[in-house]
Amino acid sequence: MSMKKSKTRLGRLGVVSALIMMLMFTAACSSSGGNKETAAEPQTEQKTEGKDSAAKDAGGNGKTIKIGVLASLSGALESYGKQTTRGFELGVDYATGGTREVDGHKIEFVFEDTETKPDVAVKKATKLLETDKVDFLVGSSSSGDTLAVLPLAEEAKKIMVVEPAVADSITGDQWNKYVFRTARNSSQDAVAGAAAIAGKGVKIATFAPDSAFGRDGIAAFKDAAVKLGADIVEEQYADATATDFTANIQKIVKAKPEYLFIVWAGANSPWKQLQDMKVQEQGIKISTGAPDIAALKTMGDLVGMEGFSVYYHTLPNNDINKWLVEEHKKRFNGELPDLFTPGGMSAAISIIEAIKKTNGDVSDTDRLITAMEGMSFDTPKGKMTFRAEDHQALQALYAIKLEKQDGTDYPVPVLIRELTPEETAPPITNKR
Question: Rounded to an integer, what distance in angstroms lies between the CA atom of residue 206 and that of residue 410?
Answer without folding.
Answer: 24
